[in-house]
Amino acid sequence: MRRVSEVRVRRRCTIACSGSFADDLKSCLAGFSHVVAVFDLNTQRFKDELESVFDEIGIRANSLVLNFHGEAIKSLEHYLSLVRQAASLDFLRRKSCFVAVGGGSLTDLVGYVAATYLRGVSYINVPTTLLGMADASIGGKVGLNLGKVKHLLGSFHYPEAVLIDVGKLDSLSSRVLAAGFGEVVKTALIAGDSRLFDYVEGHARAARAKDPRVLEEIVRQSIEIKLRLVEPDWQEEQLDRLLNLGHEIAHALEATVGFDDRVLMHGEAVASGIVAAVELAKDRDLLTEAQHGRIAALIRGLCGVVPLGGWLAGKDLLASLGAVERVRDGDMRVVLPCEKIGHARVYHDVLPGELVEALTRANLLDLREGNQP
Ligand SMILES: NC(=O)c1ccc[n+]([C@@H]2O[C@H](COP(=O)([O-])OP(=O)(O)OC[C@H]3O[C@@H](n4cnc5c(N)ncnc54)[C@H](O)[C@@H]3O)[C@@H](O)[C@H]2O)c1
To answer: Which stretches of 156-232 are DSSP H helices?
Structure first.
């Protein structure tokens, strides 16, 4: 097992990257007597592979396939459905383990079920999207959306292990892959140095073509950076988090479209947020023209950058930004890249209107007719 890292916060979490997936899964399940594996409509393609591992080690196992996929599964309805199914399977606390097989939406949902079922049971993440591998399955944040608020219900609950096999990205659509690069570029811009940014920039074509060695290196660096940033403050006591780069706008955009990822995926929303942040950073002379150009080119080349003008009204976005501000104690904290690529800082003096204008200047939002804020 090639371990990226072992996180010791409240408990040990093993993160294994592209070793032997079956062997890693077997060793992580030692000590459990019942496993419930959760898949969605798209990830049930991995069901046979996991079930044959369960058969080999002779563990009692049940597979549950959600009849949905994407952001819509982060709902109370799917939460209750999973809890009820687990209860009907006599899923007990000490020796049972969930295995979440899917993208960030599914690992967020199953992680939240695991955090709350019987006051907390173990779970293992098997992320199957780039965003899941590089970001969402790492760090212990789990949750659901309710009404217009993202993660209104949530918790911090570390998985027992995260098993990453970049081969599982082969079946991913180019849109979902591109959205994943939104979080990768975010991580590269807050890393503290330009190593990940330079690597992604230099291997963009291979990354888009799903070259496994390139994707594994990108995932490995992203995880190392995320763990370094998360570990000192794993329960987010500090609100000035660099990891929120692009997310002020992203959450507002997602709320504006009612978390409908057919319109806008989370990673696409993050890419839009980064575009706005980079634009603002150039205006404030925090970045040179050349740095701005490099970052903008990478985002547009690699991430799913969606033109927002056709369906988004500036005033709706402003209202959603206001809600994000309220959730964060009335203080709009905005992370902006500054000085050098890989460096960023939190700014408290950015007005929501400035973010909307920055999106407009970057040609993502068209505020001409009917879309005035
Ligand atoms: N917990 C965290 O720290 C954290 C961090 C970042 C993002 N997130 C969350 O992650 C979610 C987005 O995750 P995502 O981008 O992985 O999207 P997703 O989980 O919604 O998956 C996107 C689509 O890809 C499909 N899919 C997944 N794996 C596949 C595969 N191997 N082959 C074919 N199809 C596959 C899914 O069924 C779904 O339709 C958002 O809800 C976001 O809030 C959480």
So the answer is: 174-189, 195-202, 204-208, 212-230
